[in-house]
Design a protein that fits this description.
The protein is α/β, with parallel strands linked by helices. The protein contains six helices and 15 strands.
């Protein structure tokens, strides 16, 4: 049974709600390793009628579980044939049933104290450069600059400003120039501070490009810590809201390696 820490309810002060997810629509940027989002209105108003002129509309979509704002299941990453905890990846996966261990079905509802680390404000820019590396030193400086404290079990959200590029898929993905992000030293420092989950506003939670995914390997496979990607942290940053109640609910996809989410912050 999910146990809720009652101390997190001391975080909200005004009850202001911030949407931290990006909208889904056909053409949203997506990582080249994952499927696009496809949408169609299957039935439009006036295609068919009930009595007294009533009509209905409905639609359908197809998407990868790692497209748009989403969370990675612990089993999203394996290394040398093994998942987190030493489980054999080959023995614990099925083409039609997904992961047998560490799937997104195993993820509890996320209701935690959230902390925003606003890296662009630290270096006095609106959006970080393509080659900016968010290292241990950068994260530690951001904490000091914002006058906050990281606590055990926090959800730590790292802003790069890259959400401003979301409507421009080529720029958002920047396969040629790269994308700013957390380095392995930064991820290790966050774990040392006790954080339990983390996320960012880029397509992949780590400095891109990378062919080894060191941060994904360390957080998911070694530490068993979920990663959220493609967040929108602009409203939080512009309001200088650095501490909040964070709520994020993954879909209960049996065997899923990830899930779309609608995260919110309440301050």
């Amino acid at each position: 049974m999910f146990q809720l820490d009652p101390t997190i309810f001391s975080v909200p002060k005004e009850g202001q709600v911030f949407e931290l997810g990006q909208p889904l629509y056909q053409g949203v940027p997506h990582h080249s390793a994952h499927a696009p989002f496809i949408y169609s209105m299957g039935k439009m108003h006036n295609d068919a009628f009930y009595e007294k002129g009533l009509s209905t509309a409905n639609d359908f979509f197809a998407s990868g579980t790692h497209t748009g704002t989403h969370i990675d299941a612990i089993g999203h990453i394996s290394c040398n044939g093994h998942l987190h905890g030493g489980f054999d990846a080959e023995e614990n996966q099925s083409k039609t049933e997904g992961l047998k261990v560490h799937s997104i079905m195993d993820a509890a509802p996320i209701i935690k104290r959230g902390v925003l680390l606003d890296i662009p404000s630290l270096v006095n820019v609106d959006i970080l450069d393509h080659d900016f590396e968010i290292t241990e030193d950068v994260l530690e400086s951001a904490v000091k600059n914002q006058g906050i404290e990281l606590k055990k079990d926090d959800a730590v959200l790292v802003r790069t400003g890259w959400a401003n590029h979301y409507s421009n898929p080529r720029l958002f993905l920047s396969g040629d120039k790269g994308v700013p992000g957390v380095t392995e030293s930064g991820a290790r420092w966050l774990v040392q501070q006790g954080m339990s989950i983390t996320g960012s506003d880029t397509v992949a939670y780590e400095k891109q490009p990378t062919h080894e995914l060191p941060v994904h390997r360390y957080l998911l496979m070694e530490q068993g810590i979920h990663i959220m990607e493609v967040l929108n942290l602009e409203a939080l940053a512009s309001s200088q809201v650095y501490e909040f109640l964070f709520i994020c609910l993954p879909l209960r996809i049996k065997g899923g390696t990830g899930s779309p989410v609608r995260p919110i912050a309440i301050a």
